[in-house]
Amino acid sequence: MAQETSPKRYTITAALPYTNGPIHIGHLAGVYVPADIYSRYLRLQGKDVLFVCGSDEHGVAISMKAKKEGVTPKEIIDKYHGIIKKSFAQFGISFDNYSRTSLPVHHETASGFFKKLYGQNDFIEETTEQLYDEEAQQFLADRFVVGTCPRCGHEEAYGDQCENCGSSLNATDLINPKSTITGSVPSTKKTKHWFLPLDRYEDFLREWILVAHKNDWKPNVYGQCKSWIDGGLEPRAVTRDLDWGIPVPVEGGEGKVLYVWFDAPIGYISSSKEWAEREGKDWEPYWKGKDTKLLHFIGKDNIVFHCIIFPSILKAHGDYILPENVPANEFLNLEGNKLSTSKNWAVWLHEYLVEFPDMQDVLRYTLTANAPETKDNDFTWKDFQARNNNELVAIFGNFVNRVVVLTNKYYDGQVPMPGELSDLDRETLNQLRKYPEIISSSIERYRFREASQELMNLARLGNKYLADEEPWKVIKEDEERVSTIMFVALQIAAGLAVLCEPFLPFTSAKLKTILNVRSSALETSWASVFTEEALLPSGHQIGKAELLFRKVEDSEIEAQLDKLEATKKSNASDGEPTKNIEIMPQKDTITYDDFSKLDMRVGTIIEAEKMPKTDKLMVMQVDTGLDQRTIVSGIAEHFTPEELIGRKVTVLINLAPRKLRGTESQGMILLAEGADGKLVFVNPDEDGPHNGSTIS
Ligand SMILES: Nc1ncnc2c1ncn2[C@@H]1O[C@H](COP(=O)(O)OP(=O)(O)OP(=O)(O)O)[C@@H](O)[C@H]1O
Ligand SMILES: [Zn+2]
Fold first, then answer.
1. Residue nearest atom 31 in ligand 1 by C-alpha distance
2. Is the CB of 166 under 6 A from ligand 1?
3. pLDDT at position 574, please?
4. Residue 373, ligand 1, Cβ within 6 A
5. What does the record give as EC number (predicted)?
6. Ligand 2: distance of its center to the CA of 602 in Å?
7. Where in the chain is the domain with CATH 3.40.50.620?
8. Residue 581 has what pLDDT?
9. Which residue of 6, 106, 372, 500 has the fewest CB atoms within a 10 Å radius of its CB?
């Protein structure tokens, strides 16, 4: 319900990023920068804020990435969680806690939700036909299957969602489904799952969103919700037949896990619990207090999960508050094309931080000034350069630099005593005092672009004031007047230092240091800017000038465009002989000690036979020189047993044994995959070393 009184505390969540890749500018513009601006703004207002996020470490996106890289899901999540967490911190995203959904606290919390709803009979338990990949011997859900969206005709819709129209789907709804694991057309197979009957929540959702939030939710969010609710809601499976995720904690759930979109939003709660534990605080008021304002910052493809599914889960649970708003953004593109992790079409945050050191605020500003708030938008490097050179350097930086340099030059850095104020001085100070309200009003309506432009307008006000008053000329004839001019200009500089903090936190800190307000007793809250009191009183000593921003050169922009051009070329070489090959990024560097742990030997295959009732598996007896052992390998579609017997191969003999369909495989035979998907043995020359020779 639209809140009448001012909330006592705020819980702010930012979408949990999947740990299947690093953070790119789309994520930042869509979610993390606006959420951070909002949180910082509230803190400056003295509000009680809990800003949480964390890595989403379950789901098919992770399993797929692990399969692709030939490593375990655990290795994938550890790697990307590390990269993501570090880059967020360096970029100044001020989470109170950044958690991960693989932690026990999250498994317990998500299981607890499931058990509670199960106990209340809030699920439908049903055995239905689900898509099945015979070749991979796996059920296909979510990103393991693509097909045509029954709602909009988009051909690359996933098994749970169409990213084009935002619809939430059941995999069996897809037209012409195709397995993304093997490319095959799936069959169907019976399996039991638990469904959340969303139809039961239709009346509640209609009342809560379509009536109560008709006027305060963004039109893009409201519109999506309205079309789903009006279209009729259906039960959604909240469990999956997968081996990676949170085990289904009820009878009959063996071998199944929770659907990632069931557990991920609960991750906000787990993250809050982790924070409370560490800080010695109570998390419950932040999630259960009626006087708490809960906000979810997300991108548009997450709207259904945060506005329909998660609220239904919270409502069913009964103890929790609902979000007051879900200010979802549309999508950011890059140089005219959709950002894509798999196509490497992105500006990666961790790379930006290295290539543009100490320039976090420039990216924050560019992404805010051009945020995809009401429609999809394009990031271009030219715009980045223009925003930096024409606005941050030429207006903001130039104004502040003049003020600081002149104050040092004329008054040894002491704020001068003003004389009588002219009409323009008074008018300028009045305008300055209006800015907190102007910017607040934009931020509180989630119009961050507008807010960032108002901030720049304040810098413009200062710049124009100095340009009109020309203290560097007046100093020759009227020194007293200059004291007044500089006093007024200094107040604007101090106002900027405070009001830019949500948008440009690094610049704000630098400017506060230059103005020497950090270690002083001067107040720097949001409210301090609109009081009649001077922000910087006469006599206050400021520090030396230091450049806040530097120009971005053409060559830097060209280098970035060249990098993107190279990506385009490498993506376009599809169709050449390298068709369909995905060149994996180089894995992390290992030490010689790591390498020397691999015991690889020359061996000979002495027996081979296809495993009954499978298409892919071949069971082989291999003479390793040390012993004769069984190795099972997924190569039966590539070789007949006859072709294999007698072949010299390279065997990794100290790989931990693993049971495949009941037969223990004791090692691995090394193979390379050719351009056409053909497998080739990595083998010593046939006449070469005898069985058991080590390979190093
Ligand atoms: N290009 C984009 N513009 C705006 N928001 C985005 C963009 N890409 C992702 N987001 C948002 O960022 C948040 C985290 O994204 P998530 O980790 O789920 O990645 P994703 O949607 O799979 O992106 P990608 O496919 O590029 O990896 C989500 O709320 C998502 O809506
Ligand atoms: Zn669609």
1. 299
2. no
3. 57
4. no
5. 6.1.1.10
6. 52
7. 9-111+260-338
8. 40
9. 6
Ligand 1 atom closest to the CA of 333, numbered from 1: 1
Q: In this structure, which residue's CA is closest to atom 22 in ligand 1?
A: 18
239 pairs with which residues across the strands?
A: 258
CA of 27 to the centre of ligand 1 (A): 5
- Does 332 sit in the ligand 1 pocket, CB within 6 Å? yes
How far does the centroid of ligand 1 lie from the alpha carbon of residue 88, in Å? 15
Ligand 1 atom showing the smallest separation from residue 301 Cα? 31
Domain with CATH 1.10.730.10 in the chain: 380-530
Q: Contact 511/497 with Cβ under 8 angstroms?
A: yes
329 lines ligand 1 (CB under 6 A): yes
Topology, domain 380-530: Isoleucyl-tRNA Synthetase; Domain 1 (1.10.730)
Please give the model's pTM, rounded to 2 decimal places. 0.82
What H or E segment, with its residue span, contains residue 166? Answer: none
Q: What is the pLDDT of residue 676?
A: 64
| Closest C-alpha to 132, from 181, 175, 65 | 181
CATH architecture of 124-258: Beta Complex (2.170)
- Per-residue model confidence (pLDDT) at position 509: 96
At 45-54, the pLDDT tens digits run: 999 999 999 9
Q: Which of 24, 25, 27 for mutating ligand 1's site (highest number of atoms within 8 Å of CB)?
A: 27
Determine the pLDDT at residue 695: 80
Q: Which part of the chain has CATH 2.170.220.10?
A: 124-258
Ligand 1 and 27: CB distance under 6 A: yes
Return residues with CB closer than 5 A to ligand 2 (ion). 149, 151-152, 154, 162, 164-165
Residue 22 CB–ligand 1 contact under 6 Å: no
CA distances from 413 to 2, 118, 487, 519, 544 (A): 49, 68, 12, 16, 8
Q: What is the pLDDT of residue 662?
A: 84
- Listed in order, the ranges of the chain carrying CATH 2.40.50.140 are 592-695
400-456 tens-digit pLDDT:
999 999 999 999 999 999 999 999 999 999 999 999 999 999 999 999 999 999 999
pLDDT of residue 264: 98
> Any idea which architecture 592-695 has in CATH?
Beta Barrel (2.40)
Q: Is 17 in the pocket of ligand 1 (CB under 6 A)?
A: yes
Task: Report pLDDT for 529.
Answer: 79
Coil, strand or helix at 214:
coil
- Say yes or no: CB of residue 334 within 6 Å of ligand 1: no
Ligand 1 in reach of 29 Cβ (< 6 A): yes
The 8 Å CB, 24+ separation contacts for 442-450 are: 443/37, 443/38, 443/41, 443/502, 446/34, 446/38, 446/218, 446/325, 446/327, 446/373, 447/373, 448/33, 448/34, 448/37, 448/38, 448/368, 448/371, 448/373, 449/368, 449/369, 449/370, 449/371, 449/373
Residue 623: strand, helix, or coil: strand
Maximum Cα interatomic distance, the chain, rounded to a whole number of Å: 103
* pLDDT (0 to 100) of residue 690: 82
CATH-assigned architecture of domain 9-111+260-338: 3-Layer(aba) Sandwich (3.40)
Q: Which ligand is nearest to the CA of 169?
A: 2
547 within 8 A of 362, measured Cβ to Cβ? no
Ranges in the chain, pLDDT < 50: 1-3, 575-583
ipTM of the complex: 0.96
The residues, any chain, with a CB within 8 Å of residue 642's CB and separated by 6 or more, are none
Q: Return mean pLDDT, the chain.
A: 93
